[in-house]
Amino acid sequence: MTAVVRRSLLDDLATSMLDLIADRKLAVGDQFESVRSLAERFQVAVPTVREALRRLEAIGALELRHGSGVYVGPNVGRMVLANPLPLKPTAGRLVELLQARALIEPPVAALAAKARVESALAQMEHDLVQAAELITSGDHDRLAEINMDFHRALAQAAGNATLAEVVESVTVVNVREQLEILHIHGDRETDLAEHRAILAAVRAGDHVLAEQLTRAHLDGVLAVINARVNP
Amino acid sequence: MTAVVRRSLLDDLATSMLDLIADRKLAVGDQFESVRSLAERFQVAVPTVREALRRLEAIGALELRHGSGVYVGPNVGRMVLANPLPLKPTAGRLVELLQARALIEPPVAALAAKARVESALAQMEHDLVQAAELITSGDHDRLAEINMDFHRALAQAAGNATLAEVVESVTVVNVREQLEILHIHGDRETDLAEHRAILAAVRAGDHVLAEQLTRAHLDGVLAVINARVNP
DNA sequence: CGCATGAATTGATCTGATCACTTGGTCATT
DNA sequence: AATGACCAAGTGATCAGATCAATTCATGCG
């Protein structure tokens, strides 16, 4: 049996649009075509085009800006995504998430110490400066964001886009919940110091130390969370 | 200013629908409401409901089956997804993907040797039997699928849903391309033998060996690919 | 120059209808 | 009783055209 794949009109539309983007070599942020012109181009009705656009928008391949137009989104060409509409994770799910990070990020840090992509290192520096300011100013919400960004930048320093996507996906998840974690963890100064040590190790190209420090950092957080969840 | 997050009607609709699913404790595969009844429930027009449904469908949280109804999809509640509409990856991107797998999967195998989730181990056994049959029957397409499934099952054996999602996301990517890889790699018997050794190590609870075998397995594939891409 | 203003463009949503697929039941045939 | 053909209701898919709302940018006033 040949498993007839019945491609719906919508599947065709969505892939055709991606092909259009690829053919025109559009980059992230570039304006795409208007809904009406797409409808005419593909000879389908406006609502149909919009359904296809929504599908692409859901995965971040496109953006629809009211009154402005359709634009190429940040996730076009990505392989791994964070679910943009996750259900509220349970406490256990958050522990699993941290475990996953504690497993994945240390070897990524080791790789980063070998690759040392300069732009990412600069981003990490920048994040540390920002973090220091936010600690004194007390804006814990933005601090949590910046700390997550440090981890994302660390992954980007490894020079592997797929790894960066994976790490971003597991760090993006509900900053709300991560906030709670940070509030539990609490010791923001220690966090900052550990981040600084990690960056120094990466800068020095010491992949063993970078991996070890990253593991210690995440295991520390994990231990606190675990104690909190299973008292 | 009160930071009026201008949640579009669509955002509200999509999240409301997810809330409905959560409230009713619907499981994957359960039937949801019809488009028309949803339109009436939320007091919006049908095309609007459909756009929200498309968004949820795009991430696999829902499925729309023509003539039948709307059903809960397999990805509801997931945190990490594979891009369902990826662009054609370049050769370099595929190497990166393999590198990412070679970095992530070995420690996952080690964890699997500790957790040993029985259902996943059974799945791995089943995959190996299937793979042996497909090698003799010569169905290389299905063989590639089964081999990927072995790796996914291995991740599930680790008992961490997030890790399983990550590994699935990096193994789902374009079976077409992975096929090409397998054709390059070619030595299907070796693959099978290595898979068998990995499962044995996991079964035995030898996490050091499981990690080492998995690393050797993926590094072997990676080496061949690298030689092929950079001749 | 700087800022209001209004027209044009574009996305957002609605209304209502028609087509196509699935499903389950009816009913004649076997 | 089992089987298969057939029909009708429910449901998603698509269409057509219209109206509302946000953005953009050229225009022109102060």
From TrEMBL, chains A, B:
Keywords: DNA-binding, Pyruvate, Transcription, Transcription regulation. SMART domains: FCD (SM00895), HTH_GNTR (SM00345). GO terms for molecular function: DNA binding; DNA-binding transcription factor activity. It holds the Pfam family GntR. CDD domains: WHTH_GntR. The lineage of its organism: Bacteria, Bacillati, Actinomycetota, Actinomycetes, Propionibacteriales. Gene3D superfamilies: GntR ligand-binding domain-like (1.20.120.530), Winged helix-like DNA-binding domain superfamily/Winged helix DNA-binding domain (1.10.10.10). This is FadR family transcriptional regulator. It comes from the Bacteria. Residues 7-75 form the HTH gntR-type domain. Coiled coil: none annotated.
